[in-house]
Amino acid sequence: MSPAPIRALVTGAAGQIGYSIVIRIADGTVFGKDQPVELVLLDIPQCVASLEGVVLELQDCALPTLVGVEAVTNEKDAFQNIDYAFLVGAMPRREGMERKDLLAANVKIFKSQGKALAEFSKPTTKVIVVGNPANTNAFICAKYAAGKIPASNFSAMTRLDHNRALAQVALKTGTTIGDVKNVIIWGNHSGTQFPDVKHATINKGSNTVDAYTAINDTNWIQSGFISTVQKRGAVIIEKRKLSSAMSAAKAACDHIHDWHFGTKPGEWVSMAIPSDGSYGIPKGLIFSFPVTIDGATKEWKIVKDLPLDDFAKEKIQITTKELEEERDDALKACDEANI
Ligand SMILES: NC(=O)C1=CN([C@@H]2O[C@H](COP(=O)(O)OP(=O)(O)OC[C@H]3O[C@@H](n4cnc5c(N)ncnc54)[C@H](O)[C@@H]3O)[C@@H](O)[C@H]2O)C=CC1
Ligand SMILES: O=C([O-])CC(=O)C(=O)O
């Protein structure tokens, strides 16, 4: 007998990330090839025709795991009994903008969706916020769902940054992605994030070597590598005139896959989740940490007590300060937004 369907919501489903995400959820990549899935696709009324086009294409994919698709343009229908919510729908940045420039426009969406989650979804619903500024949007969403859905069910996506870091290290060392383990993205999904390889390892032949030794280029680790990962989103926008979509959709699916099934033994992933005060990060801030996940309970745990040198402490302080400022601006914008 097949298990009960998982009901997954994708917001912004008519947009570019939405288009790349739905196929991975529908074809079993995220929840497994034996797990039936019901997809709920939300977009704004102006996008209803292209949303309908996505539904038609999903039908044409003839997927055994996809047992239902609903296309909706209101939050009440969208958030009904959801198990997993991929909150993608938001304005993307354009060339020359910082992600926090989107705050005033996008924070209202996440206030409203936090309320809808509280009203219509399950207390167990797990949420990934992709729409930028992702950490702060997730903070707002969790705030307005509080009392019904625990804050620990809210996360923001830094998995794209994590994957970018893995790829840069693999390219630098002439290894494959599977050889690189335990990079970390600390902090905000922004230009202040701290991509860190201090605790990473690399398989070289039959040996496992720490990343600093394998890379043998401290200047690159502490400068070029960090800025490449920090600025990757802006470089993609400059080249495509659109923000990352294929890689963002893949990362969102990696994030939820690992939340659902758990992380591999001895490995962690980066996820922005509410701080419990670890590493001195103010409690409740949605901050990217290294986490392990137990697939049975679907609970994440922050990897504790990794030693941080002065270089790391300084970088972490910068991104923390930015997140505190964004949080304060967002709270102010929410007070002003009469939703
Ligand atoms: N966290 C991360 O690593 C990344 C985040 N992003 C962010 O993801 C978001 C989406 O990016 P794209 O898909 O490229 O944008 P897009 O403009 O192609 O699609 C966004 C979709 O959201 C819809 N939308 C807007 N307001 C909505 C609402 N209130 N409810 C439901 N749908 C709504 C729009 O109609 C549109 O169809 C942007 O904010 C972008 O900056 C993008 C890449 C990586
Ligand atoms: O850079 C952007 O605005 C889109 C994004 O978040 C990314 O590609 O990391």
Brief descriptors of the model:
single chain, 339 residues, alpha/beta, Rossmann fold, L-2-Hydroxyisocaproate Dehydrogenase, Chain A, domain 2, 2 domains, 6-stranded parallel beta sheet, 10 helices, globular, binds oxaloacetate ion
The CATH architecture of the largest domain would be Alpha-Beta Complex
What is the CATH topology descriptor of the largest domain?
Answer: L-2-Hydroxyisocaproate Dehydrogenase, Chain A, domain 2
Question: Quick one: CATH class of the largest domain?
Answer: Alpha Beta
The neighbouring-strand order within the major sheet is 3-2-1-4-5-6
Number of strands: 14
User: What number of structural domains do the residues give?
Assistant: 2
Bound molecules: 1,4-dihydronicotinamide adenine dinucleotide, oxaloacetate ion
Number of helices: 10
Task: Name the helicity range.
Answer: 40-55%
The low-confidence runs, each spanning 5 or more residues with pLDDT under 50, are none
- Report on the biggest sheet: 6 strands, parallel
Computed CA radius of gyration, to the nearest angstrom: 19 Å
Shape summary? globular
Q: Give the amount of beta strand, in percent.
A: 15-25%
> Would you list the SSEs in sequence order as H and E?
EHEHEHEHEHEHEEEEEHHHEEEH
Q: What is the SS-derived class? A: alpha/beta
Q: What's the overall average pLDDT, rounded?
A: 96
> Could you tell me how far the N terminus lies from the C terminus, measured between alpha carbons in angstroms?
44 Å
